[in-house]
């Protein structure tokens, strides 16, 4: 039995036509994703298939964004091509969100920093350490990834952080890293590194204004907690 392509579905299962008639906002997440994959399998339409896929991740697109090809391949009808199509679409959505945040001219609060870095860090399976470079008016000069891996491996990169700040004439910096575990509470290593960078930056008249620990849905701010 051949799988049905999108033109062979029942009228109520034709999301392309529905989108043309009613607009994208009228479609469910499963219907939008079905348009991307184009066909289901021999037993179900793409809409039905995507409903099962979404159910497997609690209908959470953020969770779906963390899936890899092997996760999709558990479902009949999913090969590398369909998996990568969905992964690419979700990545574009993340980049759009990041671009919108980047257009903000100045950092006013820890929430601004979180919104800027959440799209970059929320789905990563490992820790990444970044520095945000700001001018006197708290406008973003640049954001620079310092390292990948656990925070313990970043303590030797204090000179790298300060070199970036000096090269780009930043007068304020913010440290940012993610906790893939979902727990934003700082570790002893997080606290030690923060103090190390603060003292080193101070000798160069550069102010460490915050250290943000990012997870998916929440964050920890050293500044908000009165540690910096």
TrEMBL record:
Q: Which domain of life is it from?
A: Bacteria
> Which residues belong to any copy of the MPN domain?
106-228
SUPFAM superfamilies attached here? JAB1/MPN domain
* Keyword field: Hydrolase, Metal-binding, Metalloprotease, Protease, Zinc
| Database matches in InterPro entries | MPN, RadC_JAB, UPF0758, UPF0758_CS, UPF0758_N
| PANTHER family per record | DNA REPAIR PROTEIN RADC (PTHR30471), UPF0758 PROTEIN YEES-RELATED (PTHR30471:SF3)
Q: Tell me the protein family, please.
A: Belongs to the UPF0758 family.
Q: What is this protein called?
A: DNA repair protein RadC
Q: Which organism is it from?
A: Bacteroides muris (ex Fokt et al. 2023)
State the taxonomy lineage.
Answer: Bacteria, Pseudomonadati, Bacteroidota, Bacteroidia, Bacteroidales
């Amino acid at each position: 039995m051949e799988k049905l392509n999108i033109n062979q579905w029942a009228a109520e299962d034709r999301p392309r036509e529905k989108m043309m008639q009613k607009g994208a906002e009228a479609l469910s997440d499963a219907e939008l994703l079905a348009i991307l994959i184009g066909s289901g399998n021999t037993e179900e339409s793409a809409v039905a298939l995507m409903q099962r896929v979404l159910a497997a991740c609690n209908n959470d697109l953020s969770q779906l964004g963390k899936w890899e090809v092997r996760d999709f391949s558990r479902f009949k009808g999913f090969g590398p091509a369909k998996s990568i199509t969905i992964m690419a679409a979700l990545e574009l959505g993340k980049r759009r969100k990041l671009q919108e945040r980047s257009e903000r001219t100045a950092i006013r609060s820890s929430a601004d920093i979180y919104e800027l870095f959440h799209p970059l860090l929320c789905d990563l399976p490992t820790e990444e350490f970044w520095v945000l470079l700001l001018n006197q008016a708290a406008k973003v000069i640049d954001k620079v990834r310092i390292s990948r891996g656990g925070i313990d491996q970043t303590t030797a990169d204090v000179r790298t952080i300060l070199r970036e700040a000096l090269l780009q004439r930043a007068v304020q910096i913010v440290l940012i890293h993610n906790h893939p575990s979902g727990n934003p509470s700082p570790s002893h290593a997080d606290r030690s590194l923060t103090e190390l960078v603060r003292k080193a930056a101070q000798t160069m008249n550069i102010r460490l204004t915050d250290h943000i620990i990012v997870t998916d849905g929440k964050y920890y701010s050293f500044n908000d907690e009165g540690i910096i």
